[in-house]
Amino acid sequence: MKTLLVTLALLPLAACSVGGSRSASSENDRLRREVLDLHSRIESLEREREELRVKAAGLIAYPPDPLAPESLEALPLCTSISISSLSGLRAVDSGKTLAFMFEPRDGKDRFTQVVGSATFSAAFLPASGNSEAAPVRTARLSPKELRDAYRSGITGTYYEVLIPAPPGYTPSGGSISLRIDLADAVTGRTITAEKLIPGR
Prior knowledge:
- This protein is α+β, with helices and mostly antiparallel strands.
- The chain has helices at residues 2-61, 69-74, 143-148; strands spanning 80-83, 88-92, 95-105, 116-125, 136-141, 150-153, 156-164, 175-184, 190-198.
- The protein has 3 helices and 9 strands; from the N terminus they run H-H-E-E-E-E-E-H-E-E-E-E.
- Strand 8 and strand 9 (190-198) form a beta hairpin.
């Protein structure tokens, strides 16, 4: 009986110990996540600082004079834009969103990053024979927003812009006409591309 009483008296202490260990473990996990987030943020800021340093050093060492012929010949510049066939509608909580995916291409038909602003338009065309007007949605990206639209992963390297579809829009056999007008800040040219995709 005495042993039973001692055991019962120790149970609350054991429960507190277990509960305390779990709380400490949970807090340690949270702190580890915060440390990882801070490390990631520090690395990102260091990369941005290095980029700014390189830009500043370049302006000092190489004033804005014409490039040497060899360098100019090797400089990749956007000559065309390919709108990805992966562009299309995605279901979201509030309806549907159009994922507008595109790839700037250089003279060797390779993906190349771009600097500039871009205007996007999507005309949501009804099915053939439907007399309804085609709603048009547009979006404009500043140079910084365009840079942030860069994506790279298992589906490839591209830029992606999300455009809300018209409220209540359903493809119903229709299609979507996509257009991009890219104002290239490097060359001063405006490069345009268009593509018709199924509404899916």
